[in-house]
Amino acid sequence: MEVEVSLRVDGRQRRLTLDTRTSLLDALRERLGVTGPKKGCDHGQCGACTILLDGRRVNSCLALAVAHDEAEITTVEGLADGDTLHPLQESFVRHDGFQCGYCTPGQICSAVGMLTEAEAGWPSAVSADLTAPVELTDAEISERMSGNLCRCGAYAGIVPAIAEVAR
């Protein structure tokens, strides 16, 4: 069965006719040509497909497109303002927060969402005091980013890149 879905992707309204089983990841990559989100595991375990869905980070391989009609989607491509990179994108470059780069779009989108969560005061599993303001230590950043895996092990650059922007 196919249905019509409207998505606002990186600031641009897009209408698609999709099979009801189509994931947001497949709609973005295969139907709209948005290749920032990557298909890593296709099971929601690696985070390579992370996007911002209505401002919150989501594994797009697990989200059905039909469930998000009229949603606002931001991918790594939509974070930059023209030729001006998002501060996290700049920081990843400065801190060499990538090697092969496959996970980088998901890492950056996840970091943007994570910073929003921390700013809102959401605690994590390593938050010492659940009522205190969130302090983004390296341990806190690592815990909050644990859903995004890097096979190359570029964490030595990823955590400082996020910390620089957070602090």
Automatic annotation (TrEMBL):
**Cross-referenced PANTHER family:** OXIDOREDUCTASE WITH IRON-SULFUR SUBUNIT, OXIDOREDUCTASE, IRON-SULPHUR BINDING SUBUNIT-RELATED-RELATED
**Keyword set, alphabetical order:** Iron, Metal-binding, Oxidoreductase
One Pfam family name is Fer2_2
Recorded hits in CDD domains, A to Z, give: fer2
According to its UniProt entry, this protein's organism is Actinacidiphila acidipaludis
Q: Which domain of life is it from?
A: Bacteria
Q: What is this protein called?
A: 2Fe-2S iron-sulfur cluster binding domain-containing protein
| Ranges where the 2Fe-2S ferredoxin-type domain occurs | 3-79
For this protein, the record's Gene3D superfamilies field holds: 3.10.20.30, [2Fe-2S]-binding domain
